[in-house]
Amino acid sequence: MTAFSLTFPATAWGLEGFGPWSLVAVRSVLAAIIAGTCLLALRVPLPDRRHWAGLSVVAGGVVLGFPMLTTLALETSTTAHAAVVVGLLPVTTALFSALRVGSRPSRAFWAAALAGSAVVIAFTVTQSGGALTSADAYLFGALLVCAAGYTEGGRLARVMPGWHVIGWALALCLPLTVPAATVALAYEPVQLTAHSVTGLLWVAVGSQFLGLVVWYRGMAAIGIPKASQLQLAQPLLTLVWSVLLLGEQLTPAAPLAAAAVLVCIAVAQRARA
């Protein structure tokens, strides 16, 4: 969660010197190079054919979809605002997990999930002047694709090491990310600064690879619903980083909404577990 909580501030730093498309494509390529080197060095065999569909979901969700949508959102949204909206990710992940494995959550789970959703929607509408913005649309879309990627990755991590899951998902995206990085770097201006380079390296190494390696291993060990409880700390940690690293001024509604979402998710996860 520490690695993931730094993703939005690091993305904001990266956007100081890279365009959104360049940042996402280059981070994926760098992470894929690291993962591919590990896979080749250890002579990891190709996954069974039956696992490639699941790996495609992981690739579309956590390698391409979530990074791209959140990066586009952070062009106009603060990291604090994004952290509160994405605070619904634990519940969303638990919902996808319930649908994927065919379990039936209790009424208390659904009530808490709906309450948390209502808090986030009220927060976003209030902070956006009475209407949802394009950044909010990107963030809500990011919730869905990331939850799908987390769920499928957690399922696959039961039959293969967690780092194999994200490693092969990254490799699967190389035919798309390499050309995308080449084109994006040609059209979007690049300014290499300490912030932009540090931000790029963190989202590539920390968020895109190492964080997911540990995350999928944990999900396989304790189960997707219980693992998602660890995400409870992520929004609040991101709020702290947004102040310390970016100097953002928090509105009173941001920590209150984050705390309310935390309570709703805690109730939902207790009911789900």
Automatic annotation (TrEMBL):
Transmembrane segments annotated in the record for this chain: 20-42, 54-74, 80-101, 108-125, 165-187, 199-218, 253-271
Keywords: Membrane, Transmembrane, Transmembrane helix
One Gene Ontology cellular component: membrane
Presence of keyword Membrane: yes
Membrane-related topology note: Multi-pass membrane protein
Family statement: Belongs to the EamA transporter family.
Subcellular location: Membrane
Domain of life per record: Bacteria
Xref: SUPFAM superfamilies: Multidrug resistance efflux transporter EmrE (SSF103481)
Pfam families named among the record's database cross-references: EamA
Keyword Heme: no
Predominant subcellular localization, coarse grouping: membrane
InterPro entries given in the database record: AA-Vitamin_Transporters (IPR050638), EamA_dom (IPR000620), EmrE-like (IPR037185)
Species, as recorded: Streptomyces flaveus
Domain EamA: 2-118, 135-266
UniProt-recorded name of the protein: Membrane protein
